[in-house]
Amino acid sequence: MKLYTREELNTYPLSLTYDDLSLVPTEISRIKSRTEPVTKVRFLGYDLGLPVISSPMDTVSGINMCNELDRLGCLGILNRFDSSLKEFSSTSLKDNKIKAAAVSLKTDEELLSGIREKCDIICIDTANASNNEVLSKCEEIKSWFDFKVIVGNIANGLMLQQLVDAGADAVRVGIGGGSVCTTSIQTGIGIGQASSVLDVVQQRQEKKINISVIADGGIKSPGDAAKALALGADVVMLGRMLAGTKETPGEIIKYNDQLWKKYRGSASFGVKMKGEFIEGEETMVAYKGAVGNVINSISDGLRSALSYMNCMTIAELQQKAAFAVLSNSSFLERLPKK
Ligand code: IMP
Question: Which among 73, 91, 299, 310 is least buried, having the fewest CB atoms inside 10 angstroms?
Fold first, then answer.
């Protein structure tokens, strides 16, 4: 079986996703316990205890979620769809722990000026960052205020330099891989998430481009998060993994003797205006209780991965990661059986 470095994997003839890959330890580990590795990263000027950020979706990132993620050493991005932004603008500065908010292409200088008093990271929340409208908006925002700007989304690194030239500080990587996303079905656009992340990271490295990479979409488990980081992403962005927790906006629904919460795509029927194109679905996810449990499981999984790989830090993991490409039967064998 061939072991691939990141460079080699990026020349693999097929597009790959997390389920196609496995991390392969190649050294005797010096790590005694999974409490030893450090999962800390620096992202857009902030120290995060764990490289996890929430997707700015209306069924994921409200004020409670963002505050709780901050408390847990992660980063929440307040969604732009419900009343959260308005509520956020009217909370007192003293209580505010929210560091990032999503905005649309229509957001004007006045609204941004209110947001700037409360936080210094803005996410221009669009489906396609490789678009003149997005680049112009990014330039405009940068000319008005000193926000750190996240743009998205892209599926390869071909246009990375143009994003940076427009002032982008971070980019969401992934088109078509989100768990409620129908973009690929509707449009035929999008490649495997692992290949997307890898291509962007490799282009960044080869061309010495300064931009943070967010692996966005398709992360279903702590192991997928470990793989995304090993591929070179600076942080992972989660939708479904955080959906259904106590801190998400929305009611708990009792159905068939089970508890559920709604989870829907930002381009789904429920969010979009009448007549707009639909590229997302709406579903129910089982109620998970406190988001802290999800974050702990990701932290534990990542620490354990670092320990297997003989790495004390995520940076070390990114240096020495070796990957196997799994056959479909190998992938299936890895799943627990009923
Ligand atoms: P998940 O973690 O796999 O559920 O993916 C979350 C990501 O899916 C988000 O961060 C967005 O990039 C993407 N996404 C959210 N809503 C939609 C949609 O309606 N259509 C397509 N992609 C979406």
Answer: 91
**Mean pLDDT of the 302-313 span:** 98
pLDDT of residue 276: 82
Cα dist from 252 to 14, 69, 85, 245, 259, whole Å:
41, 20, 22, 9, 6
Residue 258 phi, psi dihedral angles, 5° rounding: -125, 155
Ligand 1 near 178 CB (within 6 A) = yes
pLDDT, tens digit (0-9, with 9 covering 90-100), for 117-133: 999 999 999 999 999 99
pLDDT at 251: 96
Nearest by Cα to 79 from 98, 63, 59, 58: 58
**Nearest one of 23, 46, 69 to 296, comparing CA atoms:** 69
* Helix, coil or strand: residue 28: coil
Q: What is the pLDDT of residue 96?
A: 73
Residue nearest to atom 16 of ligand 1 (CA): 265
Mutate to test the pocket of ligand 1, among 181, 219, 288 (most ligand atoms within 8 A of CB): 181
The phi and psi torsions of 310 (rounded to 5 degrees) equal: 60, 45
CA angle in degrees (0–180, nearest 5) for 124-88-81: 45
Q: Is 181 noted as a catalytic residue in this protein?
A: yes
Instruction: Give the nearest ligand 1 atom to 263 CA.
Output: 4
- Which CATH code is given to the segment(s) 6-331? 3.20.20.70
Closest residue to atom 17 of ligand 1, CA basis: 265
Domain residue spans of the chain: 6-331
Name the token pair of 338: 């009923």
Mean pLDDT of 197-222: 98
- How many Å lie between the centroid of ligand 1 and the Cα of residue 266? 7
Q: Give the Cα separation of 151 and 216 in Å (integer).
A: 12
Residues in CB range of 121: below 8 A, 6 or more apart: 44, 75, 77, 99, 100, 101, 147, 148, 149, 150
d(CA 122, CA 131) in angstroms, rounded, equals 18
Kindly provide the b/e burial profile for residues 78-110, where b requires at least 16 CB atoms within 10 angstroms of the residue's own CB: bbbbbebbeebeeeeeeebebbbbbbeeebeee
How close is the Cα of 180 to the center of ligand 1, in Å? 6
